[in-house]
Amino acid sequence: MNQSATFASIVHWYDPSSLQSFIVNSRILQAFARTLEDNATVTYVLLDTFPTLLNSAPKTVLDVIRAMNADMLKSQTKVSFSFVDGLTQDNLVPLAATLIGYPVAYVPISADQTSFLSGQPLNVYEAIVVPGTPCASSLRGSNQPHSLLKFSCPRLLAETNRELSPERVTKRLQSQFRESLSSIELSLLVHHHVEVMDRVAL
Question: How far apart are CA 165 and CA 150, in angstroms?
Fold first, then answer.
């Protein structure tokens, strides 16, 4: 497979409101959108006074991802796109978490909310990519681990919802990345610890 074919599905998305950029695999996002509608991939947490689980993905997140897929299908030769201007944090924070691949996504209660999860115990996860075999390490000239994702989930929710337990979140992460990483002889380690912060930056 040549380099152009390898990157044929890779496109750039830019948000003018926050000046954030996202690198997206258009083929994977199309399939991913269907799992989101079934609420099978990402758990959304509303950041109210007491964090609560949402029963489904926020409508704005679904609408934006549908619009992304429609735009990419319509203009298949383009490599860079922009979101509509005016996305606020209550829309952009869960959208970003979804596009990055977090299994848990936070949803601010409003565009003006400034305090998040202050003083609440959090399960903190870090997903680290490591060589799958000694041979893979030597071929790349380095055996240094690479931090792929780092995110958190309120510990209280994990204690009352089995899908958010550290064991289940770890399995979800490993399942999510196993196929793509094993194809290039890499594997995923997940580190977990509990932490309390004054506030969480989103």
Answer: 16
